[in-house]
Amino acid sequence: VILSSRYSSWMTRKLGSNPVAVLATLVLLSYNKILQTIITVFSPTQLKYYNSTYDNPTPTMHLMWLYDANISFLEGKHIALFSIALLFLIFFILPYTLLLVFGQCLQAKSNLKIFSWVNRPTFKYFLDNYHAPYQNSHRYWTGLM
Predict the structure, then answer these.
(1) Which residue, 23, 31, 51, 78, is the most exposed by fewest CB within 10 angstroms?
(2) pTM, 2 dp
(3) In whole angstroms, what is the distance from residue 109 CA to residue 115 CA?
C-alpha cells in the first residue's frame, strides 16, 4: 500500500495524504478476521455414538473438527491447517496484540538499547496511528479491542 502510493499518483489520490494510516486500518481489520479463522481452526467437538452390533453396546468417542465433522481433529488434512494457523498465531496475532497493548510502555522505555527499535520513524508512525486518539494513560485500549 505504501509503495504503491509512492509510485502511483492515482493510488495517492485514492488513499489520501497518509497511506500509513490506511495500512494500519487494513492491518487492524484483517487482524480481526484472521483471529476468527484461527479460533475456528482450533475448535474441536467430540462425537459419541454407540456400537449397536453387539449385545452390550459400548460408546465410541471421536474428536472431530467443529467446522466440518467429516474431518478428524488433528488428523490428515487438519494437521496442515492447524500448523499454519499456529504459525499465524505465534508470528502475527500474539506480537501484534502485545504491540498494541504495550506499545505505549515500549515507547516510554525506548531509551533502553533493547527497545531502541520502537523509535524508528516508520515504526513510530505506524504505532502512532493506533495510540494517538487516546490520552496517555489510556493508550492500551486499542490492543484490548
Answers:
(1) 51
(2) 0.70
(3) 7
